[in-house]
Design a protein that fits this description.
The complex is a heterodimer of chains A (about 150) and B (about 130).
Chain A lengths: L3 H4 L1 H16 E10 L17 H8 L4 E5 L2 E19 L3 H4 L4 E18 L5 E8 L5 H6 L6
Antiparallel strand pairs in A: 1-3, 2-3, 3-4, 4-5
Chain B lengths: L1 H16 L1 E10 L18 H8 L4 E5 L2 E18 L2 E18 L4 E8 L11
Antiparallel strand pairs in B: 1-3, 2-3, 3-4, 4-5
The chains are: A alpha+beta (about 150), B alpha+beta (about 130).
């Protein structure tokens, strides 16, 4: 009987190598974005002067509304999820039992936030903002700083 | 040289035969019509008129000087690509939102509108 390795050598070897690699190494990159980015409000908005009407006309509907100690808070939020994973393994479990396997995964969710505080009369009384997306993925996820 | 090309061709063939791609679309749907806002007048329209035109809100929030009716729907689009040993995924979510501010007498004072759901796109994560 003629060996299939002699008839279709490239196909057979490539198939075997392809399947072996598939089981050995994998890398994945996932990104999820929710919401929209908010423009730089510090140039347009002034505490004590900007009204609720102006804020709504400029930024549109907030993602969240809340009352906090007698003030109304408009929250604009955008989230950015980044996920990556790398794994190595030798798929010989059926032959040898447990075998070499290594994997590393990381997931980071960053937020761009703008909080606008309004008095009951509808005048801007405070602004708080954070642009989490400016932090680079790898540097942030590998950081060992407290609170990070 | 020909042998190298043959090997390369077969490897590429295997690479693409073992690849796949997928798309997904999700809607969190609420049938409000933003064009109805033209019929609502700040300082005059009541909460009853708001719900008559826009329907039941997705959420009601108590505020310092009244309430806010929030209307929200979302559109999400996901893309996945698997290439033998590398896989990519991307998920994009955008919202249509209307927030109606009502005073303690249930009169509409302000409103905010964002119609961004159509901006959700398919794509790769870079």
């Amino acid at each position: 009987m003629v060996s299939p390795f002699k008839v279709f050598p490239f196909l057979i070897y490539s198939f075997l190598v392809g399947n072996l690699i598939t089981g050995c190494v994998s890398y994945r990159v996932i990104k999820a974005v929710e919401g929209r980015s908010v423009s730089n409000i510090f140039e347009e908005f002034r505490v004590g002067a900007t009204t609720l009407k102006e804020a709504l006309e400029t930024l549109g509907a907030p993602d969240q509304v809340a009352e906090l100690e007698g003030k109304d808070v408009l929250i604009y939020r955008r989230s950015l999820l980044s996920n990556s994973g790398l794994s190595f393994g030798i798929p010989l479990a059926d032959i040898w039992g447990p075998s070499f396997d290594f994997s590393a995964y990381g997931e980071l969710v960053r937020y761009d936030l703008v909080l606008l505080f309004f008095t009951p009369e509808g005048i801007l009384s405070d602004i708080a903002s954070e642009k989490g997306s400016r932090y680079p993925y790898l540097k942030t996820i590998l950081s060992d700083k407290k609170g990070n | 040289m020909n042998r190298f090309r043959e090997i390369l061709f077969v490897l590429l063939l295997v690479f693409f035969l073992q690849s796949c791609a997928g798309w997904a679309k999700n809607k969190d749907y609420h049938p409000f019509d933003a064009s109805g806002l033209d019929k609502l007048i700040p300082g005059k329209s009541t909460a009853a008129q708001v719900t008559e035109i826009l329907g039941a809100p997705s959420e009601i929030v108590k505020l310092s000087n009244g309430n806010a009716y929030i209307y929200r729907r979302s559109l999400s689009k996901g893309t996945g690509l698997w290439l033998l040993i590398v896989s990519f995924g991307n998920y994009d979510v955008h919202y249509d939102q209307i927030v109606i501010f009502l005073d303690k007498k249930n009169i509409m004072t302000h409103h905010g509108v964002t119609l961004d759901a159509h901006k959700a796109t398919y794509g790769l994560p870079f």
